[in-house]
Specification:
Elements lengths: L8 H6 L15 H4 L2 H6 L4 H10 L2 H5 L12 H5 L6 H14 L8 H10 L7 H9 L10 H11 L1 H5 L7
Helix pairs in contact: 8-10
Bound molecules: iron/sulfur cluster (2 copies).
Length: 167
């Protein structure tokens, strides 16, 4: 596979949110050392993604499904000796990937659950009954209409291809 390099990509990322911190990355690998996604997948590597941003591998990063393996635990952000906001930069990259139509198919069912029920894991009847037996309160449900309003206003619905369960 040939690599496309965008000399402007680092500057583009630097202008969004905490993206500027990527410029302080000196490739020590501390973020990768404590990353659970790397430990379990072996193909995901936050240090490498920071390197690819610095080198301008825009197309490769944004079209890579590997980007979506991060669990958003933020261990990398807390550990980085350079103050690179690694996990926040990963969110920026995911947002850009979604804008170019690279939102992963396997996450669309989670989008549908979020917009239909307000929770990614709505829980089964069996779970609700077990909670009652244990005298635990019901899991609070967010107001779905509020979530949908935000999703519409931000373009999340159209970008992720969500269709209502009623359609
Ligand atoms: S820990 Fe920080 S400086 Fe080290 S590779 Fe990761 S992002 Fe770069
Ligand atoms: S936030 Fe993502 S990249 Fe950072 S340590 Fe957790 S799984 Fe790894």
């Amino acid at each position: 596979m040939s690599l496309t390099i965008s000399s402007e990509f680092r500057k583009e990322i630097s202008k969004i949110g905490e993206g500027v911190s990527v410029n302080y990355c000196y490739q020590c690998g501390t973020c990768s050392g404590g990353c659970p996604a790397l430990r379990y997948t072996k193909i995901y590597n936050p240090r490498r993604i920071m390197e690819e941003v610095l080198l301008g591998f825009k197309e490769q990063i944004l079209n890579s499904q590997v980007l979506w393996l991060c669990t958003m635990c933020h261990a990398c952000l807390e550990a980085c000796p350079q103050g690179v906001k690694v996990s926040e930069i990963l969110v920026l990259l995911r947002n850009l990937a979604t804008e170019i139509g690279s939102f992963p198919e396997h996450l669309k069912s989670e989008v549908a659950a979020l917009l239909d029920y307000g929770l990614i894991n709505p829980g089964s009847g069996a779970i609700q009954r077990r909670r009652q037996q244990l005298n635990l309160p019901e899991v609070p449900r967010p107001i779905v209409e509020h979530i949908k309003k935000v999703a519409e206003a931000t373009g999340f619905i159209s970008l992720t291809g969500y269709t209502s369960k009623e359609e």
